[in-house]
Amino acid sequence: MGIFDFVRNAGAKLFGKDKPETHGEPSKPLRTHVQDHGINPENLHFRFQNGVLIAEGWVPDQDTREKVILIVGNVDGVDKVDDRIQIGRPQATAGGSVPNQFPGVPGAVGASTSMSHKSPAEAPWSSKTYTVKSGDTLSKIAKEMYGDSSKYQGIFEANKPMLKDPDKIYPGQVLRVPTL
């Protein structure tokens, strides 16, 4: 889909004192973080190139794709995510195996050229994004985005499992705002 911007100094602190782009193996903590949010990271890989986090691999649907991008983008030290995630499943070769799209990454598998999928450009985001500002609440965001503060529950639901409580959002966090 392209490059998404995030607030660099906001979000989960996964890399300790290291900068994410200089961390020896950034994919491992990011995959664990995605898994902690209830999404299977088996077919995902993350790497930095020129300071941009590249997210690649595939997920089963558009909703999962959007959540993965927001989960890894809302990490302290990440300010840009290049979304190269594809929707679908790889097709196995005649021998039944799936070629490794991520050479040199232990245990990683990936899409072959015969993959049944939608590329990021073919699968635009189904929701808008909103960057939380100081003083924001989900009700305030719903009022701004929908004209009705009581529709905050839709924003909360669209951001589960990243949000566990509608009252716990923070400045710099990027949220999905679904079309209602």
The run of helices and strands is EHEEHEEEHHE
**Global morphology:** globular
Largest sheet: 5 strands, mixed
User: What class, by secondary structure content?
Assistant: alpha+beta
Secondary-structure blueprint:
Blueprint (H helix, E strand, L loop, with lengths): L1 E4 L21 H10 L7 E6 L2 E8 L2 H12 L6 E10 L26 E3 L8 E5 L6 H9 L5 H7 L15 E5 L2
Parallel strand pairs: 3-4
Antiparallel strand pairs: 1-4, 2-3, 4-5, 6-7
Helix pairs in contact: 3-4
Structural summary, described in words:
The structure is a single chain. With 180 residues, this protein is an alpha+beta fold. 21% of the residues lie in helices and 23% in strands. It has 4 helices and 7 strands, in the order βαββαβββααβ. The chain has helices spanning 27-36, 62-73, 138-146, 152-158, and strands spanning 2-5, 44-49, 52-59, 80-89, 116-118, 127-131, 174-178. Strands 1, 2, 3, 4 and 5 form a 5-stranded mixed beta sheet that branches. It has a two-stranded antiparallel sheet with strand order 6-7. Helix 3 (138-146) crosses helix 4. The longest helix is centred in the middle third of the chain and has 12 residues, at 62-73. The two termini are 22 Å apart.
